[in-house]
Input
Amino acid sequence: KQSSAADPNCEWVTFKEVQDCWKTAQAHESKMYNDDGLASETNKLLTSDDYKDGVWEPFWELVHQHRNKRWSAKDPGIVVLDCFAGVGTLIVALKRLGIRIQCVIHCEHDKVATHTFQFNHDCQYNPELVNDGIRYV
Output
């Protein structure tokens, strides 16, 4: 590494040093992501009998019950707390599953994502949307 004559605090890095760092980073990344001997934590969960019996199967059973449920006019639907709401993919998924939704409380710190969520879903925010009967907070 050489110091610049114009600015003694500025260091120059040679092309060879950059190339060596790049090759080292590629080797580390390759080792980290291509180690077939180690199962990822999510794969371990899906093969765990405790997880499958206690969480996975009951979850999907509940989803199928809600999907096939005949909603009465008296049943107001569920209240959804959508943390990290983003563009509202959770709401789209719940609607496609046929789950009746009474109210959505969406939490998002990003102002652009909040605008996008409201523009995509909230008919009070975007009057061009069809009123789906869901209250958005």
Remarks:
- The mean pLDDT is 78.
- The chain has five helices and five strands.
- Residues 76-137 form one domain.
- The first strand starts at residue 2 and ends at 3.
